[in-house]
Design goal:
By secondary structure, the chain is of the alpha/beta class. 29% of the residues are buried.
């Protein structure tokens, strides 16, 4: 394990962004908003132009949230280089966003690990690969940690910080601090699992939404409305465990489980097998077209980001007024 101190989060001046698709470009926008330089690498044709367009589109909501102070992104502080190694050598911190293909990630991480000095931390945005698996390709595995964002990565506050078996405790603490410095709300995942924590929660609900569609329980619009207007408003303010606690009235969690525990056990037991077959893919594609009214994805993304700003501002206000400070 290296004995060299890691640069303090507030002293980071440049970040190597490896993979500049939607996730990487939005990370880059946030780094630029925090006054950092970005050294980017992406092997895809046209990657630089697409990244600059994505950063420009990400800037207005970042500005509205106060995360960016300038009216326009400082794109002069973004430069693309010819290899992951060149980016890793040029920056203070390395942030990896390549597709979720284990062999591809293995090769990129091996190159990054060889090029970056041992005092440089490597952050991975992987949404599902356990970090111990990634560390197998590193000669300095202690400085690799997962910092997994959620789409859109420049706006959604949550990031999951996941250490592997060989990750230094100091690196995990550093990642938590860096995330907070970026304006994120980090959570520490203390047990590795494929998909980490939040994807496990998210896709349990998605699975049941698909099962309800297959069972003919409701239209795609009504299934989404059940979440938007029933679960979503409460979950914006509090998570499922506190929601369940309040459902018990004065009796709290124990009260609701004593009263409805057997029914809850039945409700959360899956009733329909959901397998992603060609027929299901077609059914879900048709449902998506119906829900989106055929409008382009870009229009929906702009609508989403505009209203996410309003929701995040409400969430910030609500946290400040919680009965107890549980942050």
């Amino acid at each position: 394990m290296t004995t060299k101190p890691y640069l303090s989060p507030q002293d980071v001046r440049s970040v190597a962004v490896i993979g500049a698709g939607a996730v990487g470009a939005n990370w880059a926008a946030l780094f630029l908003a925090r006054g950092m330089n970005v050294v980017a690498y992406d092997r895809a044709d046209g990657a630089e132009e697409r990244a600059r367009n994505l950063i420009s589109a990400a800037w207005p909501p970042l500005h509205a949230l106060g995360l960016a102070t300038s009216d326009a992104p400082p794109l002069q502080n973004l430069r693309f280089v010819g290899s992951p190694a060149e980016a890793a050598r040029a920056a203070d911190v390395v942030q990896e966003n390549v597709p979720e293909q284990p062999m591809l990630k293995a090769g990129i991480l091996e190159e990054l690990d060889a090029a970056a000095s041992p005092d440089k931390i490597i952050l991975s945005s992987t949404g599902g690969i356990p970090p111990t698996q990634l560390q197998a390709h590193c000669r300095a595995p202690q400085r690799l940690v997962v910092m997994h964002p959620f789409n859109p990565s420049h706006l959604i506050p949550l990031v999951e910080v996941v250490g592997g078996e060989l990750t230094s405790e100091a690196v995990i603490e550093w990642a938590m601090g860096f995330a907070k410095y970026l304006g994120k709300q980090p959570i520490r995942i203390t047990a590795e699992a494929t998909g980490h924590l939040t994807n496990r929660l998210q896709f349990a609900l998605v699975r049941e939404a698909v099962a309800c569609l297959l069972d003919g329980m409701a239209s795609p619009a009504d299934i989404d409305s059940a979440v938007r207007y029933g679960l979503g408003p409460r979950w914006t303010l509090m998570g499922p465990l506190l929601t369940l606690h309040l459902a018990g009235g004065a009796g709290g969690m124990k009260g609701i489980l004593d009263h409805a525990g057997n029914a809850i056990q039945e409700w959360w037991t899956p009733r329909t097998d959901v397998n992603i077959t060609p027929a299901l893919k077609q059914r879900l594609a048709e449902a998506a077209s119906e829900l989106s009214h055929g409008a382009p994805i870009g229009e929906w993304e702009a609508w989403r980001d505009r209203h996410l700003v309003e929701l995040l501002q409400l969430q910030t206000t609500s946290r400040a007024l919680e009965p107890r400070d549980n942050r």
